[in-house]
Amino acid sequence: MMPFLLAEFTNLEEILPLYVYCVGSHEQKHLERPEGYPAHQLFLSRSGQGIFRIQGHADILLTPGSALLLPANQPHAYFPYESTENWDLGFVAFDGKAAKSLLEQMNKLVLTVLQVPNFELLWSQLESLWQLISLNGEQAYWEASKRIYGMTISLLEGQASDKKILKGVTSSGSPQPALQAAVKLIHDHYNERLLLTNVARAAGYSPQHFHRLFVSSYGMTPQQYILQLRMRRATQLLQENPSITVESVAEKLGMETSYFIRMFKRTYGLTPKKYKDQS
């Protein structure tokens, strides 16, 4: 879970042609927006299913691995497909003078369900963007602008590739198969003491080359990526097991308790215990 984060970039909307308005992810509940939202939004459905009800359009069902691009000020509502279902929905809202022309360029992708072949890349970019703003605040505004543009291009690239528009083109913007295998290894063993030199060698890379490729593809270091996986899993454990202790969560993540508490607070702004009490 990435709690709702408002990007408070004071007066920068006059400077940046494209800027982040807010970003986050959570188990989505029923939400009504009869006046729409003041910024354009990209939604990513990670697990569960949900319905978008948009004025003047048929209902849109988002399933795992799908996305929706929603223009600003478009009246809408959205909610889980079943009232008891957990719908993990990520979102980023953006605006700026370049946003309108960007959406016009992507007009075929607007207000329609998008099956996203490079979903994991987009989700990692979303997590990276949230982490950037969460840790750096207004100091992140230039980099955040670059990354939201990168996300929209990744979305467009995935859709173009899915429709075979880019025949015969090898893109350096999407993770290479060996790098994807390394990421899968990280996902499978993130709760163990992972030596990144071993992960790099398993993928056939030198540690230095692996680090460069990873940062280029995912916008963060392998260590930051592993930490995000651990923090996300921590929130799931705390939500799913009300009686679980902080020490048990740290153990399941392969982390020393005091370090886990420190990293959790740095990521989410409160201790694991306070987070559990509020869940």
Structural overview:
With 279 residues, the protein is of the alpha+beta class. It has 3 domains: 2-162, Regulatory protein AraC (Jelly Rolls, Sandwich); 177-219; 223-278, Orthogonal Bundle (Arc Repressor Mutant, subunit A). Helices cover 45% and strands 19% of the residues. The protein is built from 10 helices and 10 strands. The chain has helices at residues 97-105, 119-136, 141-162, 177-189, 196-202, 207-218, 222-240, 246-252, 257-268, 272-278; strands at residues 2-6, 19-27, 31-33, 40-47, 50-54, 60-62, 66-70, 76-80, 88-95, 114-115. It has a 6-stranded antiparallel beta sheet with strand order 1-2-9-4-7-10. It has a 4-stranded antiparallel beta sheet with strand order 3-8-5-6, with no helix packed on it. α5 packs across α6 (207-218). The N and C termini lie close together (12 Å). Mean pLDDT is 84; it is low at 163-174. InterPro entries: AraC-bd (IPR003313), Homeodomain-like_sf (IPR009057), HTH-like (IPR037923), HTH_AraC (IPR018060), HTH_AraC-typ_CS (IPR018062). GO terms for molecular function: DNA-binding transcription factor activity; sequence-specific DNA binding.
